[in-house]
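Z., the sequence and structure:
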Amino acid sequence: LLTGGAAALLLLRQPAESPALGKQLVADSWLARNRQLGGWLALAVIIAAAATVQLYRLGEPYMWVDEVFSFLPAKYILETGQPVYPGTGAEYYRAVVYHRIIAAFMHWFGISPWAARLPNVIFNMGTMVLIYLFGRKVSVKTGLAAAGLWASTNFVLSITRWVRMYPMFWFLYVLALYLLYLALFEQPRPRLRGRLGPVDISFSPLPFVGALLVFALAVETQGLAVAALWSLLLLYAVQAAVGIERPRSLAAVGALLAVLLAAAWLRSGTLNLVEVYFGQTPLPTENLGPSFVRTFIGLHYFTYARFIVPAIALLLIDRKDSLTRFIAAMGIGVL
């Protein structure tokens, strides 16, 4: 909540923007006059602070069971070339690219928990850069607030120090979204132009193909990447509803629905998205009684409040001027 409040204060200090006039009213300060360079310098400070915390005694904590599931296959890749347990012949072909990266780092720095955990610190630095680039589409301060919010979250600080594939998945997923944004909205050259009724189907092929390739690698790293597309679908649906880049937002909604339908059919042989992605699943705590389960679920979802605090604060202060920043904060928060 403190990090959410700090982000809200930083965003509220941002001057109003006027997209129609194509300019921004900014305070007369060094950061305002040199906001791009100043933004990158401030981001470097945030990344350095986060890396210092993540690297501190990185190799000393003991490995818990999930880390062993990744550490040993990487070790066996280094020794035999395949993630196969000697003696039993058991195979571990989940997130193959990630485990080969871990094997490479252990080859360079020795077989140790420190070497195995180091790639995740690097991946998380890349994620912070991408989050900043996303937020900077609104303003430099929005990008810095988003990156700082991510860097200071205990969930991120903890999992970055594990030998698991999740930080690599974060990086690949956000990179795929950023490339998709470039392909559909900024459309750098070369670009293909077209229109289908109210839907603008123009796009840039190079970042679009890049987004597909990176997203495929994200799915190979963590299958959750497909289900996580719902956050982006919600973002573009809200943008279309309020009239922000409506033709291109509608095109993005259609493209994401097509991907979700294809994934649902390949996974379950049905086009019922509700059944595939939101069906009932047993809770690991259900044997502890309904009261405990309700408390557990409540505390679990309360952790997401940190992302909602700055967005709600913006809406309460100035609804009209804050709408774009609200959408950006919610989209980054869901990520």
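The CA atoms of residues 140 and 179 lie 19 Å apart. The radius of gyration is 22 Å.

Let me know what you think.
H.
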